[in-house]
Design goal:
Strands 1-10-9-6-2-3-5 form a seven-stranded parallel sheet. A three-stranded antiparallel sheet has the order 4-8-7. The two termini are about 25 Å apart. The chain contains eight helices and ten strands. The chain is of the alpha/beta class. Bound molecules: 2-amino-2-deoxy-6-O-phosphono-alpha-D-glucopyranose (GLP). The site of 2-amino-2-deoxy-6-O-phosphono-alpha-D-glucopyranose has 14 residues, from loops.
Length: about 260
Amino acid sequence: MEIIIKDNFDFVVEEIAKEIENLIKEKPNAVLGLPTGNTPLKMYSKLIEKGKKGEIDFSNVRTFNLDEYAEIKADDPSSFRYYMFQNFFNHINIKKENIHFPPSELKNIYENCKKYDKTIENLGGIDLMILGIGRNGHIGFNEPTSSLDSRTRVKTLTEETLKINNIKFEGVKYPDLAVTMGIKTILSSKRIILIAEGEGKAEAIKKTVEEPVGAMWPSSVLQMHEKVKIIIDEKAASKLKLKDYYKRIYSRKVYVDALLKEKN
Ligand code: GLP
């Protein structure tokens, strides 16, 4: 894993936006995996800004969102589809047919979850999966003790997640059920970047990066992927034991990359 620690979250946003810009320049029809939550909001604003300035052309980009609540309508303000269109898709030149969400209806859910994973596969897989992280280490809605080999499926949310996500769906029949990309689905991405901000995520980052891989902290499974970047601010990095070492690696990165290029 490459751990990139920035002084503050605005620099994290700059870095992730640059990564996405470079990817789309290199591959205009890139397949992106996208998160929701508070953390990515500034990233989406930055990408909209770059789109409006013509620095990024989203017209051939395909997207797959990580998760969605079960049995919730797309126009319900609590749905992740609503969140994504309000905060991103309505403001960029992406084609609607290139936007994909996990199924929300529970009818035919097994078949539709398989279809979701199959569609990702048929497009050649996700080029860049962008993740947030829950305080309990969930990625997407893969809650603690999720199988590390799981595919897209229905998950029952923990009390903690329901509380933190402030899930109060008046009249929604199944507020604690969600549909999430599985851990194996996430790991099948070519590259993964996890972003996190603030003290509240420091424990989750510590467990993700420096503690044993295990289903109790699903995010720890990222240690098993060969191309993961963790881009975080100082506060989210505050519990990392080898913080100075990560900073030294990053500060020497340009020099080491140039040296290896010269030698090979
Ligand atoms: C939500 C989403 C995750 C998100 C996480 C953190 O439950 N299912 O995809 O990464 O919680 O959200 P936030 O960025 O608001 O802390």
